[in-house]
User: What shape does this take?
Amino acid sequence: MTRRTAFFFDELCFWHSAGMHALTLPVGGWVQPPAAAGFAESPETKRRLKNLLDVSGLSQSLLQQSAPAADEADLLRVHPQAYLQRFKALSDAGGGELGPQAPVGPGSYEIAKRSAGLAIAAVDAVLRGEADNAYSLSRPPGHHCLADQAMGFCFLANIPIAIEAAKARHGLGKVAVIDWDVHHGNGTQSIYETRSDVLTISLHQEHCYPPGYSGAEDCGQAAGEGFNLNIPLPAGSGHDAYLQAMRQIVLPALERFAPELIVVACGYDANAVDPLARMLLHSDSFRAMTALLREAAERHCAGRLVLVHEGGYSEAYVPFCGLAAIEELVGVRTAVQDPMLGFIQSQQPGAAHGRFLAEYVEALAGRLR
Ligand code: ZN
Assistant: This one.
């Protein structure tokens, strides 16, 4: 059965310039600066995903549209005015550093508002019943952004902005946010850590980003205690460890919580060739995780599932991971073959490391139960 999948994107989002002054690697000293495109958060990963959707023909099965920028009221539900003014002033002045690893370019404020607007529209389309599920190709991403602090390529908290807009407009109740970006969803966690109406779960590479952070001890505070779960996985975790974590931790948590909407912070940087992390996922991993959450959404909330694009820094491979997730949302397979699938499947953890990972996830599931 095919489903009605809404797909939100806007060319403007590809025009955000993170600025060549902020390179991923520290340069100088013994480190030769890279050539022009040295910044990891490039529009190419996102644009090439959109292009593969078009070339594969999958676009024809999607309800494709743009959306207006998030307006001031939308932003102010999550971010304080003073932070927004600081962001706008820096953007209007031509750019600079808004926070750690968060350089903005000229016009980035307007572009970030459009990125958040796409996420708002994706949630809106699903809640109105115009689509069964939705994908927002948001850029810049949002999951590292705190209420008053940009960081990690993120300037506005796209998912919280979309959730709070839906709560204001549709009286939406309980929402679950599953963050499978390889880096910790620290912004979303900080915005919701004292609330029980939004369950946040982050699967991430332990000690990766924010630098040194694990999250194993953080499980929400005050009224939010127990509504914030962290699944820090060791570097080198692959398809089986992620699927086990989904089945033993994420799905039971969703069962207990019974959300009215599931939102995914959909980064693809846990794939095996990502330059900013060290995990071993492939396109079928993202396909399988999307399938598990689609089925969970069907059980709990009439299939209401929204994927919001976050990280993923391999220009060559992100398109195949994204295509697989979106094929699963729609319920069709295109003729596209992932040229790297076989190789990455052959690079999965060996027997001893696999056993270690299975026991690690089992123990984590026991602690979080
Ligand atoms: Zn990431």
